[in-house]
Amino acid sequence: MQLVFHVGVHGTDGDRMLKTLLNNRNWLLKNGTEVVTPNRHRGIIDEALASLDGGAASGEMEGIMLDAMLESDAPARVVMSTPTFMGAPGRVCGREGLYPQMAARVAALMRLFPSSETEFFLAIRNPATLLAEVLPQFAGGGYDELVQGCGPQDLRWREPIRQLVQAAGGRRVVIWCHEDVPLIWPEVVRLVGGMPADVPLAGSLLYMHELLGDLGIARLREAMAGQDQLTVARRRQIYAEVLALHALPGMLDQVIELPGWTQEIVDEVTRNYRADVAEIAVLPGVEFILP
Questions:
Q1: What pLDDT score does 272 carry?
Q2: What is the rounded distance in angstroms from the CA atom of residue 291 to the CA atom of residue 282?
Q3: Residues whose CB falls within 8 Å of the CB of residue 67, separated by 6 or more in sequence, listed in order
Q4: Cα separation of 93 and 88, whole Å?
Q5: Count of structural domains, the chain
Q6: What letter would DSSP give residue 86?
Q7: Would you say residue 218 lies in a domain?
Q8: Looking at residue 48, what is its pLDDT?
Q9: Which of 55, 79, 214, 282 sits in a 20 to 30 Å window from 151, CA-based?
Q10: How open is the CA angle 84-85-88, to the nearest 5 degrees?
Q11: Full residue range of the structural domain in which residue 70 is found
């Protein structure tokens, strides 16, 4: 059995992955893929992690968990999607930098299902916009409590991703940039769900609709209608062109208001992020989805 974990991160796809997969639930079920919603797996996984206390589940325990979570009989692929696999929003930072517990969490999920073929999917995003997105959701205090002494220059993705890949031990790891997701969303969903390119995908315009609104989506559909044998590259080009012309006001920009941050700091963090993405994209063991 292939067991797929879409683990976030916070401030990226939220429940959009889950909604899009559920929009395609009939095809997925007919083709051996079951999507397990958080209300069906969260309590089971949390209780199992606590009881195992770092150990690996037995075959019997693994079977009991799957029987409790699954509705179909013996699916070939099981997908779970929630950013809480990486913990509460307060887990975004530690003194060491971004997501210091990421590798440990991935290892713990693998120990829950040791006989399954586990895969991990996640989006990363500019740490400046990530913190700006997560801070209002953080219930444990203000900015200082969230970053736990971590400075802006320490907000790097390369090390937690390296540790994640090492913890995954050769299992599939698929990563993309949140900033690219409006252009690559159909390919991301197909990879998570195991859906071939020639299968119609419901919900493929979810992100684009958020950015364009009803009028912009109508313009996009018009631009797409006249295309024959549309390639992925051409579709992305059309998406980018329509976004440039018809994006809703303010949707492509995010104001960064973090205590002590200047524009120079934002620029430096952004440069570091781009450098990290370039390294991660060619990191052995990573499948990176480029726009």
A1: 98
A2: 15
A3: none
A4: 11
A5: 1
A6: G
A7: no
A8: 93
A9: 282
A10: 35
A11: 2-200+258-289
- By the 10 Å C-beta count (0-12 exposed, 13-18 middle, 19+ buried), 171 is classed as middle
Q: What is the pTM of this model?
A: 0.94
Q: Would residue 246 count as lying in a domain?
A: no
Strand, coil or helix: 27: helix
Taking residues 71-81, report their average pLDDT.
94
Q: How far is Cα 4 from Cα 192, in angstroms, rounded to an integer?
A: 7
d(CA 282, CA 241): 28
Say which residue, 229 or 5, is predicted with more confidence. Answer: 5
Q: Rounded to an integer, what distance in angstroms lies between the CA atom of residue 52 and that of residue 117? A: 20
Q: And the tokens for 167?
A: 């913890």
Give per-residue pLDDT as tens, 206-260: 999 999 999 999 999 999 887 777 899 999 999 999 999 999 998 888 889 999 9
Identify whether 271 is part of a domain: yes
What are the angstrom distances between the C-alpha of 237 and each of 12, 50, 241?
Answer: 22, 47, 6
Confidence (pLDDT) at 251: 87
Q: Is 264 within 8 Å of 149 (Cβ atoms)?
A: no
Given the DSSP bridges, would you call strands 286-289 and 172-177 parallel, antiparallel or unpaired? parallel
Chain-wide mean pLDDT for the chain? Answer: 94
Q: Which two tokens mark 1?
A: 């059995």
- In CATH, what number is assigned to the domain containing residue 186? 3.40.50
Q: What is the DSSP letter of 248?
A: P
Residue given tokens 């992305």 in the structure block? 236
pLDDT at position 105 is: 94
